[in-house]
Amino acid sequence: xxxxxxxxxxxxxxxxxxxxxxxxxxxxxxxxxxxxxxxxxxxxxxxxxxxxxxxxxxxxxxxxxxxxxxxxxxxxxxxxxxxxxxxxxxxxxxxxxxxxxxxxxxxxxxxxxxxxxxxxxxxxxxxxxxxxx
Length: 133
Description:
Structural class: alpha+beta
């Protein structure tokens, strides 16, 4: 029964995971690395470093980010420091599935127009910050 539940969580989060998996060839072709760690694909370096340093919409640059069961990190150090935080996001994707990404972005936009910080005040981030940076 546990295997069925785990399979469902991976399937439910798969739309976002698929977005994250698009970074695999981009990372490999640009000198990045890919590894399977604690049940997720971790991708670091190369194009991923460039992507995260450039910043995301109105959220700005990031050390790491999660898309389903894929965690993107600038480098190994960023992944190591943020792993617990990012795994909270993995669990959020398992809970909310394909709704997670739009809900996260909508929350950020609403916060921005309320004059709040779209990242630090985002309820998804606040939950994750309880478990580390």
